[in-house]
Design a protein that fits this description.
Largest sheet: none
Shape: rod-shaped
Helix content: over 70%
Order of helices and strands: HHHHH
Mean pLDDT: 86
Low-confidence stretches: none
Structural class: mainly alpha
Number of strands: 0
Length: 150
């Protein structure tokens, strides 16, 4: 099984999970897996998918975390500039420049915060979907192991 097909199945689950309940998305995930794989390849596909999802979760939590990107440093710079603009507003000669800088930092800081927050929510949503698939795979493998031992 190619990684591109696995990625397509995972993305399909994530998109469907945004609009449907967990059980429905899992049923469609399993149906698609059984359509794509032959009878003997399903267990191998599940193991490969689980490993790939664990890798994706690790990489998303490390590299795609927006609170570790450069945008957060720009946001911190906006906070510092906001504080400096408040200080500028206390001086009569720099009051107008302080007001202009303060409004600019509020506008750009708010838009930057919205970008960082939405990226964080999207990353968290993807990690949750990936964890759901891992839980599904683990429950299927556990049920298959108990059936073979019984």
């Amino acid at each position: 099984m190619k990684s591109e097909e696995i990625d397509r199945i995972i993305e399909r689950y994530a998109e469907e999970r945004k609009h449907a309940k967990r059980q429905v998305a899992q049923e469609h995930f399993l149906a698609y897996v059984y359509l794509v794989c032959n009878a003997g390849e399903v267990e191998q596909f599940m193991k490969h998918t689980r490993g790939l999802l664990a890798y994706y979760i690790d990489s998303l939590s490390l590299f795609e975390n927006p609170f570790r990107n450069a945008q957060v440093f720009w946001l911190l710079l906006m906070f510092l500039l906001f504080g400096f603009s408040i200080y500028m507003m206390t001086d009569d000669d720099l009051c107008l420049a302080g007001i202009i800088i303060c409004t600019g930092t509020v506008i750009f800081g708010t838009s930057l915060w919205n970008i960082v927050w939405s990226k964080w929510l999207n990353t968290d949503l993807l990690i949750a979907c990936y964890n759901e698939i891992i839980d599904l795979i683990d429950s299927l493998q556990l049920s298959q192991n108990t059936e073979t031992t019984a």
